[in-house]
Amino acid sequence: MANKQFDVVVIGGGPGGYVAAIRAAQLGLSTACIESESYADPKGEVRLGGTCLNVGCIPSKALLQSSELFQQASHSFVMHGISTSGVKMDVATMMKRKDNIVGQLTGGIKALFKKNKVTLLPGHGKFAGRDDERWLVDVNGATVEATHVIVATGSKARHLPGIPVDNKLICDNVGALAFDSTPKRLGVIGAGVIGLELGSVWKRLGSEVTILEALPDFLGSADQAVAKEAWKVFTQKQGLDIQLGVKIIKVETGKKGVSVEYELGDEVRTLQCDRLIVSVGRVPHTDGLGAENVGLALNPRGYIGVDANCRTNLPNVWAVGDVVPGPMLAHKSMEEGVMVAECIAGQKGHVNLDTVPWVIYTHPEIAWVGKSEQQLKNEGVEYRVGQIPFAANGRALGQGDTTGFVKMIACARTDRILGVHVIGNNASELIAEAVVAMEFNASSEDIARICHAHPTLSEAMHEASLAVDKRALHF
Ligand code: FAD
Ligand code: NAI
Fold this sequence. Notes:
By secondary structure, this protein is an alpha/beta fold.
């Protein structure tokens, strides 16, 4: 039987892959997407959406929302005059809600594939060779042929030597999103994005949470003012125990749970906990891809090497998302997917890595785009800063949530916005204005001249832009 032939075959159905497939099909290219059975649904059917929808962005945000509501009902309603007593969290219901959201969204992508006529090929995709002008890709023993291949195989959790992840007692993101009860004591290795988000979830639900971080600085990639504010809120107000500059010596499991021996300065300490989350970063996933069969080049850190348009070293082979260098974020993966599909169709695509926003969905949320003050200092760039606290914002006061600030940094010479950093309620939504502004090379004066609705949190962005020129009106 002849092999199936496609203009485009995408390997991996996460945000990078499924978006690339949909866009390629929209552009009239015959397209297939291969997705392995990593995330099967309860009936054993393959699930699209990759890490993001199955064991990443979406389930973590569902748990953050449930736990935040629990926290508010338990502690914040009272300031509005609403009394509550006996507020309880049923972890099983919270998890069921999360699973339903995941099921709904992953099913939705299958429906989008049908609508856009993308062929889903369930199974493991592997380069098998080249036949004339076409790439041969093996899918569970069957061969498909493709003019173009887009590799979107994503990433997997980095594990540490000697720390066996069983996703029961010692968990990476997969197990950490599926606890069946609130651990009394939770240990976390790594105070990065996952450690802070999932540490927050279980802290709000009553766990004693200790986070062990190797680096001496907290949130080193954020602007220092934001990191300082976040440290104060997380450790002093919320009671997360975050220990910096630790060296993990040994992790053991036993009847009492997990014991973590670590060095802090000259001291050796032991953390005894019921569950441990290991969140020390992610690594590109190219296992079993057959890169070596066709000479697909990986860089020394295991990422697939690409140019600015996500072309690999092989003709008509492209790679997008977590498997290529750059921020490991779903929206960056999706943008790359669109760009590649458009390039294949002969259009011009672009992804501006300088305006990719970062968001940490803790409470307060943390979001930024562009450069931090310390980066600009290191680069010797002269800049002006406008910073406005939410305490000076009427909407924040009305909402009873005035933690944090908006900080805008603009070039001292041209006034072009170089970075915007927000810590506070809804920072994830507020940052969009800054991304648009930076994408269009706007100045702080441009934002200052835009009418912002009153009363809104976005007025803090407006005031920060005025503050760059030392003419804030309400602070
Ligand atoms: P993936 O989503 O990893 O998808 C790759 C897919 O390829 C997988 O489905 C895999 O099964 C499949 N695959 C791999 N190899 C093969 C093969 N050989 N054949 C067939 N299929 C294969 N990012 C955000 O922007 N916002 C967030 O809030 C956020 N929260 C996160 C929370 C957690 C706990 C984690 C772990 C990550 C989070 N991320 C978040 C990161 C985000 O999930 C990733 O950046 C994103 O999923 C990357 O998309 P991708 O398509 O490149 O890869
Ligand atoms: P991370 O890179 O954000 O943080 C890992 C932390 O672990 C770092 O602070 C690092 O210094 C520390 N670490 C590394 N080795 C260590 C060791 N041996 N002992 C103690 N600490 C150690 O990685 P994380 O949290 O695992 O998340 C992975 C990626 O997933 C993120 O970088 C991000 O790209 C993505 N993600 C994005 C989210 C979002 O956008 N809101 C949410 C969660 C994940």
